[in-house]
Amino acid sequence: MSDRVNKYSYWAYGINIESEVLLPDLMKGDAAPDVRIRHGKVASSTVFKSLHDNAKVFDRPGCRIEAAPGAMCISWDKVGTFLVHGGTEVIIESEPHVPTEDLQPFLTGPILSVLLHQRGLFVLHASAVVIDGAAVGFLGAKGDGKSTLAAHHQVRGHRLIGDDIVPVDLQDSCAVVVSGFPRIKLYNDSIMAVGHEPSNFPFIHRFVEKRSFRYSDNFSAEPIPLHSLYILNEGDEVYLEKLGHASTFIEITRHTYMNRYLKALGAESEHFEHCEKLIKKLPVWKLNRPHDFRAMDKVCKLLEDNVRKSGIE
Fold first, then answer.
1. Engineered SS bond to 213: which of 132, 145, 184, 228, CB 3.0-4.6 Å?
2. Domain encompassing residue 29
3. Which of 70, 100, 118 is where one domain is finished?
4. 301 and 174 in one domain?
């Protein structure tokens, strides 16, 4: 019997990924890998032994996290343990009898966000689209409607850059959004609201009701300068409110991946520097709107008009 391990090549967020796990939402790649995802024994790795001696431990419902500069280990109940280190490798030790497809949402979600942080990017919990050549990001907590708003913009002809994870490369002249992959995670009602049949799209996980809304024809694969950010806020009326420096700093920190672990990762000062740089490069708005599909056209039109009349400040 052959012990050959299948390896798949992908591209996402500007990096080439070699994976022993099928990740069908990602785009296929063919270049030498920058990152390797493989199965292995986490506890026996030299990286884990060093991490275990120096890490701060965070116990969350359903998972345990060990974090230290350059490495993070996350163990999910009934799924497995994932060790991410150096921004170059992910080692997976799955629980017995866990189907390979059950690993996918963890790898393309939280594990990729850790990996991108380790590679020096400023990773926002957001969705982003391109409006008239300018990248705009929608920030919000789980359930705030980031993905739904991105999907509505996409079917209006605006290209998707990324959903849920939006990495920003803070260059000297501007902030640049690094493109992810052409998938949005949506519930059935959101898919129907943009005119599609939910059953045409697979569930992202057998225990999760969201589906993988893959709308590849309208996706931006190239990096795009970031024009503005919008903090989603539920209200009765649809309007924009420009945020001041202090409010912007708080909101960006609140919607940054890894914000709970910055001290353990030795990244607090870097995070504050990134926030300050980002605030100086672009405007941040609070987007007030009702949580109602019927208001979506009005919301999208407001954002389109705002992007077209305002420049990067």
1. 184
2. 8-118
3. 118
4. yes
In total, the chain counts a number of residues equal to: 313
Residues 6 or more apart whose Cβ sits within 8 Å of residue 267: 69, 117, 258
Q: What are the structure tokens assigned to 117, written together?
A: 């942080």
Distances (CA, A) of 22 to 5, 117, 218: 12, 23, 23
Number of other CB atoms surrounding residue 20 within 10 Å:
17
Q: How many domains does the chain have?
A: 2
Q: pLDDT tens digit string along 105-157? A: 999 999 999 999 999 999 999 999 999 999 999 999 888 999 999 999 999 99
| Interatomic CA distance for residues 185 and 97, integer angstroms | 26
239 plus 165 within the same structural domain: yes
Q: How far apart are CA 298 and CA 70, in angstroms?
A: 44
Report phi then psi at 292, rounded to 5. Answer: -150, 125
| 131 and 107 part of one domain | no
Taking only the tens place, the pLDDT of each residue in 250-290 is 999 999 999 999 999 999 999 999 999 999 999 999 999 99
Give the strand pairing for 175-177 and 8-12.
Answer: unpaired
- In three-state secondary structure terms, 297 is helix
Q: Which residues pair with 63 in a beta bridge?
A: 60, 76
What are 11-23's pLDDT values in tens digits?
999 999 999 999 9
Averaged pLDDT score across all residues of the chain: 92
The stretches of the chain forming alpha helices (DSSP H) are 46-54, 104-106, 112-118, 146-155, 188-193, 245-254, 268-281, 296-309
Which residue in the block uniquely carries the two structure tokens 């909101």?
A: 251
Residues 113, 122: Cα–Cα separation, whole Å: 10
